[in-house]
Amino acid sequence: xxxxxxxxxxxxxxxxxxxxxxxxxxxxxxxxxxxxxxxxxxxxxxxxxxxxxxxxxxxxxxxxxxxxxxxxxxxxxxxxxxxxxxxxxxxxxxxxxxxxxxxxxxxxxxxxxxxxxxxxxxxxxxxxxxxxxxxxxxxxxxxxxxxxxxxxxxxxxxxxxxxxxxxxxxxxxxxxxxxxxxxxxxxxxxxxxxxxxxxxxxxxxxxxxxxxxxxxxxxxxxxxxxxxxxxxxxxxxxxxxxxxxxxxxxxxxxxxxxxxxxxxxxxxxxxxxxxxxxxxxxxxxxxxxxxxxxxxxxxxxxxxxxxxxxxxxxxxxxxxxxxxxxxxxxxxxxxxxxxxxxxxxxxxxxxxxxxxxxxxxxxxxxx
Length: 367
Prior knowledge:
The chain has 367 residues and is α+β, with helices and mostly antiparallel strands. The chain has two domains: 2-168, no CATH class; 173-365, Nucleotide cyclase, GGDEF domain (Alpha-Beta Plaits). It is 62% helix and 17% strand. It has 13 helices and eight strands. It has helices at residues 2-9, 13-44, 57-86, 92-122, 127-140, 143-168, 173-177, 199-206, 208-228, 249-268, 270-277, 309-324, 332-338, and strands at 185-196, 232-237, 240-246, 283-297, 303-307, 328-331, 345-351, 360-365. Strands 1, 2, 3, 4, 5, 6, 7 and 8 form an eight-stranded mixed sheet that branches. Helix 9 (208-228) packs across helix 10 (249-268). It is elongated, with a radius of gyration of 26 Å.
């Protein structure tokens, strides 16, 4: 148990997130295949080979779904981890071309393993005979053409979900598909504004091109720490990241954990930043909680937009970090929700906030 925990603790936050996504894809595809199998069994009846005399249906289905789950893990890993990193700086056409080829190949591989393992392990054919049968069906009948479309459609939906979640943040795909935000909704959310510390002198020293690369790396690694703790990234503005969580005590604690993990992600790559850019990035953050209005806007370019005083206040709190010489500031509402120990937070007193009639009491996180 201790050995397994030590291994898990050594996995980076970004990898943990990727693993969760890969397993989610594998479970979703396996459930889809099982439900689709039940549907075909009900509609096609005796035409299914799974209903042949002497067939152990449970054993067959278990083997089929094991194949689907295992191959789904491999394909999900390539989509989420390998291809995303490999195509990180690639053009759109190259992304689409490679992913399309992967989809077609994945559909072929999925059907190959399902068919061959059935003939070999269940129908008791030799492995060579199983391969010959698969080759015959592939080249002399329309069997493969009938089997591939269902997987291609499933893979395309998965890619669509990944792309939407990467654009709008995790968990938004179903809300977009269901039209949840076609009409504006009021929701209570935890909002965090986070940006690079001392960005102006860094930009002046590096120049426009190198500074952009620096910001891109900074955002890439810091976002890995945020999404590990279920942070939904709302937008990037220059060197600034706006993140939100649904309102709850557990999620309030996740905001603190996200700050710590993001800092660890940067520390792990401190030597890379020092060699590449001559500086190690640091950041400051402001966190507030309150009601925001969420809805879709735009015609040519649609987007999900949050608005309200909560957003403005969180931005002002982040700006106040410079005024009171603190890295992480939270409002009293967040401090109360966190219910942290006395030594973990420290009141910096009432702070004048631009656009506010009254000063706000802010708390520094000692993390």
